[in-house]
Amino acid sequence: MDKKRVAVLISGRGSNMTALIEAAKGSEYPAEVALVLSNRPDAAGLAHARSEGLATAIVDHTAHGKDREAFERALAGVLDGHRVDLVCLAGFMRILTPWFVERFAGRLINIHPALLPAFKGLDTHARALAAGATMHGATVHFVVPEMDSGPIIVQGSVPVRAGDTAEALAARVLKVEHRIYPFALRLVAQGRARLVDGRCEIDGVASEHGILIAPEI
Ligand code: GRF
Questions:
Q1: How far apart are CA 20 and CA 200, in angstroms?
Q2: Average pLDDT of 165-176?
Q3: To test ligand 1's pocket by mutation, which of 39, 147, 154, 174 has the most ligand atoms within 8 angstroms of CB?
Q4: 178 C-alpha vs ligand 1 centroid, how far in Å?
Q5: Which atom of ligand 1 is nearest to the CA of 177?
Q6: Residue owning the nearest CA to atom 1 of ligand 1
Q7: Residue 205 has pLDDT above 70, yes or no
């Protein structure tokens, strides 16, 4: 099988990166992790990637001051050097310019810890609680220039429980993230999920006619 070469971009702990690495170990999985790249030299996920014997790279954004495009040109150069087909943002805490996003259009995906388009940005779990949401979850989407706004590939949801703290909710959502990110990458790597005219087209996924309501009563 001709596996797609994937770069996973991180800034921190890297638990989604680990989920992708584990999935990619499967012989039938259509993607391999060709590179783990961090903008922060101290990202904890780097050590895990190295322990897995994967190629790692650091492109430190602080070396480029306020020049976002210079940082991104360096980033793109490293990705090209590793002949990367697809890029997965996994807790990568840099806003990307339209230049970078267009360069990787349709090949750049992100995971966001909320059911987009609700709760774009940061502190999603606390905001979901404050809003009184009864459902929360995570979204994998194609990246477009506007933050957390790209066409949705996969979402997974969890109920919000009485007495939930932001931490408890975050932990429940994180388990969903670790399931949906490998699934979404599989669809993109197979070419079954594609960015077409600003929308996500998906082939061959059975349509579900069930509904999901929380709380259960
Ligand atoms: C995840 O919640 C992800 O959705 C968000 O940042 C967090 C990264 O966690 N974009 P990890 O580094 O993958 O553990």
A1: 21
A2: 98
A3: 174
A4: 10
A5: 4
A6: 91
A7: no
- Whether the predicted pLDDT of 207 surpasses 60: no
CB of 176 within 6 A of ligand 1: the answer is no
Q: Which amino acid residue places its CA nearest to atom 2 of ligand 1?
A: 113
Residues 7-54: pLDDT tens digits?
999 999 999 999 999 999 999 999 999 999 999 999 999 999 999 999
Furthest-apart CA pair in the chain: how many Å? Answer: 55
Pairwise CA distance, residues 91 & 42, whole Å: 14
Please report the atom of ligand 1 found closest to the CA of residue 45: 12
- Name the residue at shortest CA distance from atom 8 of ligand 1: 91
Q: Which residue has the tokens 């980033």?
A: 75
Q: Which of 34, 31, 35, 39 is nearest to 10 (CA)?
A: 39
Gyration radius of the chain's alpha carbons:
17
Q: What is the DSSP string of 158-171?
A: EEPPTT--HHHHHH
Examine the residue annotation and report whether 178 is marked as an active-site residue of this protein: no
- Comparing C-alpha atoms, which of 22, 17, 12, 19 is closest to residue 35? 17
The phi-psi region of residue 135 (left if phi > 0; otherwise alpha if psi is between -120 and 50; otherwise beta) is beta
CB 79 within 8 A of CB 35: yes
